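ugh finaly. both done.
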Amino acid sequence: PICPLWEEARELEPYSEDQTCERAPRQRFACALCFCTHRSDMRTVSQSELAQHKSPGDIWMAVDGHVYDVSKFARLHPGGSQIIEQYAGQDVTGVFFELHRKDVLAKYAKLRVGSLEGAKEDGALGEVGAISAVPFAEIPAFQGQNSPYYRESHKRLLQAVRSFVQTELEPIAESADLSGEYPDLELRQKLGKSGMFGIRLGPGPWLKALGSLGIKIPGDVAPEDFDYFHEMMAHQEFGRLGRPGFIDSLGAGYGISVPAIFHFGSDEVKRTLGPQLLMGDKHSVLSISEPFAGSDVAALQATAEKTPDGKFYAVNGLKKWITEGMYADYFVTAVRTGKTGTPKDLSMLLVERGPGLETKQIKTTYSTCCGTCMVIMNNVKVPVGNLLGKEGNGFRQIMYNFNHERWIITTSLIGQGRQAVADTFMWARQRKIFGKSLIDQAVIRNKLAASAAALEGLQAFLETVTYDMCKTKGGAVGDRLAGPIALLKYQTTRACWNIADDCVQIFGGRGITRTGMGAKVEGFKNYVKYAAVYGGSEEIMAELAVRMAMRNFPAQAKL
């Protein structure tokens, strides 16, 4: 593969098939940033030479030890050329990092003409996949805390997933999120063949299937060593993208539907469709919610009746708010196959996109790129072999899936929250107001402390529940973990609402802007309310947690 930045840098020098990116040595691509940084003909520019290039049409600037020719770019600058001309011929490192994310340096690496004499590069871009030293930017165990949960394989997987996210997804995240474009087949296949789909399904039979398809688990983790902590870190690394619409377009619906196919599908379905799903050649989503029923799944109205020849089900009904539905090939669909009016009527069918099935985009508060849609089924013929499990077991299967789904939502939200807190710490240190950095203001430090305390409390709760999942037969499945996971989700969405509020207040206007310095804070702020609704609303989570706790309330207990 070629680095996404290559197209912007190809004029620098001929591309060599043997070129290896020095910032990500395991990746064989031509990286614009590396080409620019490591070109043998890049020269040293003195302060006096830099100062000479300060006229309209001839503008050089220095940022982070590098000198850029922005003469032509000045005309295209979103803020106009005047601000560029104001700082022409100067080292603008401080001003630059008050206004721009470091990603911009990689995006415009082709404009670099040399290194500034005597300037020390502070390595703002960092090494691909590196562990950050920014306070609270990492799970505490990776910033020096002693922890019983993590092994070397967890660190390897974390850095492998982070490298993939930084090199393959970060460069396209903003444009995809803003344009609302669905991920194309090529991107989905890249996610499949890199193992990024498989590892976010968690421990299960699909992990060994990956090996038979020639797909390695990132970080060279053996399938038998892979646990829920590995999965947790994968979700959190994707969460660091900070744009929830784009994040959900990369497998939110897929990740909660494929396990149902592997657990309940027929051997024939698993043999034929399973590999296509893992490779990213086909895409499935979970299709349960309806205009008539959300958290109250027993009230679903979509129906499936067998045709007179007994070979098909005729499926009719509506499904709503189906994430990734616009580009899905298969829908793991809850339907009513009985007429008793009880949960025993429910069954699960694997419905393939075809005649009678239509999807319509639903515009929500985050990007349309995740394909949230209405699914309209009008006499869709589904082979009886696509029944998942047995008729009447649908309610149990939905409940079987819910614990893991809720844990995934929680994990992703905490990952997005960690990136938001890290960004806010960096912003507070970079931004100057009233003659000093934001972080020098006591009120700002108080907000940062409140956010960090809440974040680490959530991480500790998540790790406790995740450890329980690792040690429990069947993992997240089962009644005993339903209460703790519901309580975890409830506490996470409540606490993250406060974290988002503090982060937005510190970023100010940038915290409610979809691009620029506060883009990931703005995305996190939006996702908090999503997480509080889907997978089971906060109210349902609180009710479930208390009801499950009351099951074991000792009858003789008195105050």
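ok and the 2nd:
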Amino acid sequence: TNHLDLDAVIWLQLHLAESKLTCLIVSHDQHFLNCVATDILLLDSRELHAFDDTDYDGFKKKHASFVAQRRKKAEAAQKEASRLQRELSKGGGAGATKSGRRVAKERLEEIKATAPASTREYAVKFAIEAAARKLNPPLITMEAVTFGYGPRLLFRGLGFDLSMDSRVALVGPNGCGKSTFLQLLEGSLTPDDGVVEQANGRLRIGRYSQHWVNQLPGGVSPVEHLFSLLGERPERGSPLYQQVRQELGEKGLPSSAHDLKIKDLSGGQKARVAFAAISTVRPHVLLLDEPTNHMDLDSVEWLEGYLREQTSKLALVLVSHDREFLDRVCTKMVETEYGVTHSYPGNYRSFLKLKGERVRLATAAWEAQQKEIKALKADVSRLRNNEAAAATVRAKERALAELQPGGDKHMPKPFTARARFGFRFPPAPRCSKELIELEGVEHGYGGSTLFSDVDLCIERGDRIAIIGPNGAGKSTLLRLILGTETPRRGRAEVVAPNAVTRYFEQDQANALPLDKTVLQTVQDASASTDHTYEELRALLGKFMFKGEKVEDTLSLLSGGEKARVALCRMLLE
């Protein structure tokens, strides 16, 4: 769901919930998991734990009990180990005899071998130090802003004010200009018409973009990257060196990853580096473009809490398709559709109600105006040849002109809901009940181990969510199943002989041929099939690419539109 708009996410969750397909899902969207998942796999601290017959909310309840039981068991084992150590050192109890000492040593080794892996070595604290100096509001003002790309108009007459206590969400379909809105606020884009002003020229902006995660310098370490932003050279042991490492740790990057090359980090770990970089700015304003895409669930909850508490210190404008996140964080929604923006107070749930009411009232007013226009036209036509009614005809013609396009009282037709995103996965061939097996699997990179002793059987029709902290190996587990990586030990494979597998990875949209058009991309993907041109155009229509849109080059598409192209291409390969 990372780059899909809300309509597409809602459709996908409904389709998967009704589908008979077997699904393995890595996602940090809690609402999506509640609607889709029937089982949960938790990958954490090098161990895999199964929670069967539950959605995410049910998992949280079971997990709390699981953690409590595990802690109680670990405490009992620790007490037993301490007792045995004392007896062995003092020669009492089990240490009183040679056989007793042998049994005690064997038991100590057993306790050590079966002890649960240590919990995470970091505590996530998504505190971003704000600017010490406050500025007078408004921090950013947009007046009568118009902007577009070539003939494609995104904004017309846009007005917007941003104050220190603002927590604003930008919503709308893929390609409506949400990321562009953030760039106009930041000043990295200049409007075609109108004005964007920042407070006193002293405004400091921290911006996180969904695309920047993959544009971080891969050849340096996180520590080196932050030092480059500070204009300093890293010196081990210096106060600044310790401060940089602490900053990375508080953003949830474990110390073992501080000196790795950024290109070797997971998507979530790269996101943490990007957030640590924002902290070096000490901003007045945060502009966040899909901040939760690469975060694990614990980090999302920390970020939610932090943003809710910072109303007096930071202004916030964000783009997100995580409905729960929008509900909990934002107090104002700005929707852009067909070049026009509307603002609504409240969170996302309030926005849905208020928008529905606005559209209902606007539609009723437009329909009433259409009736009035029709009545005026009928009166003019009926009285036109009556000389005695000439003054009345002229008055009605003036009234009609005011209601027509260009008139002072003209009311444009409210935008009707566009066609919904939607397609159906083709039916899969019949196969055996057991689809995927993992037996004694251990895997990791370099000297680190991600997980070990993994045994798992996935059956036809299962819809399993794999969750866990960033860097735990969730995507790695999928690659082992697909065979693109080989485990250090054990086996992981699709065992059903006629099973058809498809893999949609989180960065698949970024691997598209950006110099090609939408149509050329799906034509290349279907080269080995017998799909006709008409069938491909019909399929693209289901993915919301119609008319001249199929001739757009991929480099001009939004992140969500690229995700739809990648999903369409996956079905054709």
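summary for the 2nd one i guess: The mean pLDDT is 86.
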